[in-house]
UniProtKB/TrEMBL annotation:
<keyword id="KW-0732">Signal</keyword>
<keyword id="KW-0964">Secreted</keyword>
<keyword id="KW-0175">Coiled coil</keyword>
<protein>
    <submittedName>
        <fullName>Olfactomedin-4</fullName>
    </submittedName>
</protein>
<dbReference type="InterPro" id="IPR003112">
    <property type="entry name" value="Olfac-like_dom"/>
</dbReference>
<dbReference type="Pfam" id="PF02191">
    <property type="entry name" value="OLF"/>
</dbReference>
<feature type="signal peptide">
    <location>
        <begin position="1"/>
        <end position="20"/>
    </location>
</feature>
<feature type="domain" description="Olfactomedin-like">
    <location>
        <begin position="240"/>
        <end position="502"/>
    </location>
</feature>
<feature type="coiled-coil region">
    <location>
        <begin position="179"/>
        <end position="224"/>
    </location>
</feature>
<dbReference type="InterPro" id="IPR050605">
    <property type="entry name" value="Olfactomedin-like_domain"/>
</dbReference>
<feature type="region of interest" description="Disordered">
    <location>
        <begin position="224"/>
        <end position="243"/>
    </location>
</feature>
<dbReference type="GO" id="GO:0005576">
    <property type="term" value="C:extracellular region"/>
</dbReference>
Length: 505
């Protein structure tokens, strides 16, 4: 093929356009005896030629092009090869990028919702911490000596906040500056409470001695005041029934919150009564699980001080109790067996079931429970005469029945039928063989409104106002020696002193 052939020129121009990133391509005219032919050097790479450029400026081509090559065979035929860039659109990679972006967006939204939730929790506990700070400041400035219980209750609240902050730190992703700051403030609060407690411990016993001295003086004043007037009948001796029944009740004394916390609103508590050792019974606390039905854990304390300070407790698990109608008598706990009309006797020393018995025809599982208190169809009671159970049957159409039990075998010894509908009462207790029933007046008061005397078979109405700390009373247990009511009130443990009608000697 002759140099300058029109077909070859057209081919080279086409190749030049196809490799668009190479710029203008110059072709050099051959020189006789030269080893170059139309811009191709002897190494088969395009390079600068020795003649003028074809249809372009006269500047020499100073760069080599690596994406196409050319060669001339022994017959003078030009052969060219071109490597074109891959111009295919990468659709699969774009699709993968879109999917990845979608997944990341969902994760971000999820983490953002967590952050919002944590921010709300932090604001709530900031308010609690502020309230605690104010309380501690008041205690620090006040001249009143606080008991160990005051400090222990504050410690419990601080510990609950410490637990929350630890949980937040473990699950919080991202900046945790606010959480760290809260943790430091709570730690400082703990140290401050401990410091105040150490400063005040020396005053606790002194204040108690002063209170006892004041009580003694008050009694002396009352005695001197009564000189010259007819002698009033003495109060009934502990554990005796030498009186005319309950005529009044004191205001409540708040002992403390139950050891499991604010969420455990249902339960019972009291003191063991044994006729052989009436003044030596241990204290027991039996909060139900948060479902308000299952009695699973209970604690025993040898003294009231141990209960107040949450120390030296024996904690036991039974997992088959139901409702808050529990009572303790002679070192045995009496409960309603879960999901049945059976009653059981649990030995507190061994935490084992000593006896189980079916309570004949007793309604159960919320058929005739108390007003606003579920799962208490079967309610045990203890008084000077021993062990009782209050319940209803279908035959009694929901009216209360009182049965005296043999505390050893759980056999029913005798039964009395009342005219009082059980679900209209909020709770009951027994004193000297007399049933007393309460009902709700409002969120702060109850009324002892009904009695039934098993000694005479008489029943009637009463009007004794009973103040309370929270809205609902879940259980009432009477202790014959202390002559006190032990009331479980929405998680709080309350004490009441009973006032009896004094019979003339």
């Amino acid at each position: 093929m002759r140099p300058g052939h029109p077909f070859l020129l057209a081919l080279l121009l086409f190749l030049s356009q196809a490799a668009g990133d190479l710029g203008d391509l110059g072709f050099l005219a051959p020189t006789p005896g030269s080893s170059s032919f139309l811009g191709f050097d002897s190494s088969s790479n395009f390079g600068p030629g020795s003649g003028s450029r074809l249809g372009s400026s006269e500047a020499p081509l100073s760069q080599s092009f690596s994406n196409f090559t050319g060669s001339v065979d022994d017959r003078g035929t030009c052969q060219c090869s071109v490597s074109l860039p891959d111009t295919t659109f990468p659709a699969d990679r774009v699709e993968r990028l879109e999917f990845t972006a979608h997944v990341l967006s969902e994760k971000f939204e999820k983490e953002l919702s967590k952050v919002k939730e944590y921010v709300q929790l932090i604001s709530v506990y900031e308010k609690k911490l502020l309230n605690l700070t104010i309380r501690v400041e008041i205690m620090e400035k006040d001249t009143i000596s606080y008991t160990e219980l005051d400090f222990e209750l504050i410690k419990i609240e601080v510990k609950e906040m410490e637990k929350l902050v630890i949980q937040l730190k473990e699950s919080f992703v991202g900046s945790s500056e606010i959480v760290n700051q809260l943790e430091v403030e709570i730690r400082n609060m703990t140290l401050l409470v401990e410091k105040l407690e150490s400063l005040d411990k020396n005053n606790v016993l002194a204040i108690r001695r002063e209170i006892e001295a004041l009580k003694k003086k008050l009694k002396e004043c009352e005695a001197s005041k009564g000189e010259g007037s007819p002698a009033a009948p003495p109060p009934p001796s502990p554990g005796s029934c030498g009186h005319g029944g309950v005529v009044n009740i004191s205001k409540p004394s708040v002992v403390q919150l139950n050891w499991r916390g604010f969420s455990y609103k249902y339960g019972a508590w009291g003191r063991d009564y044994s006729p052989q050792h009436p003044g030596k019974g241990l204290y027991w606390v039996a909060p139900l699980n948060t479902d308000g039905r299952i009695l699973e854990y209970y604690r025993l304390y040898n003294t009231l001080d141990d209960l107040l300070l949450y120390t030296n407790a024996r904690e036991n698990r039974i997992a088959y109790g139901q409702g808050s109608g529990t009572a303790v008598y002679n070192n045995n706990m009496y409960i309603n067996w879960y999901n049945t009309r059976n009653i059981a006797k649990v030995n507190l020393t061994t935490n084992t079931v000593a006896v189980t018995k079916t309570l004949p025809n007793a309604a159960y599982n919320n058929r005739f429970s108390y007003a606003n208190v579920a799962w208490q169809d079967i309610d045990f009671a203890v008084d000077e005469n021993g062990l009782w159970v209050i319940y209803s049957t279908e035959a009694s159409t929901g009216n209360m029945m009182i049965s005296k039990l043999n505390d050893t075998t759980l056999e029913v010894l005798n039964t009395w039928y009342t005219k009082q509908y059980k679900p209209s009462a909020s709770n009951t207790f027994m004193v000297c063989g007399v049933l007393y029933a309460t009902r709700i007046l409002n969120t702060r008061t109850e009324e002892i409104f009904y009695y039934y005397d098993t000694n005479t078979g008489k029943e009637g109405k009463l009007n004794i106002v009973m103040h309370k700390m929270q809205e609902r009373v879940q259980s009432i247990n009477y202790h014959p020696f202390d002559q006190k009511l032990f009331v479980y009130n929405d998680g709080y443990l309350l004490n009441y002193d009973l006032i009896f009608l004094q019979e003339p000697q």
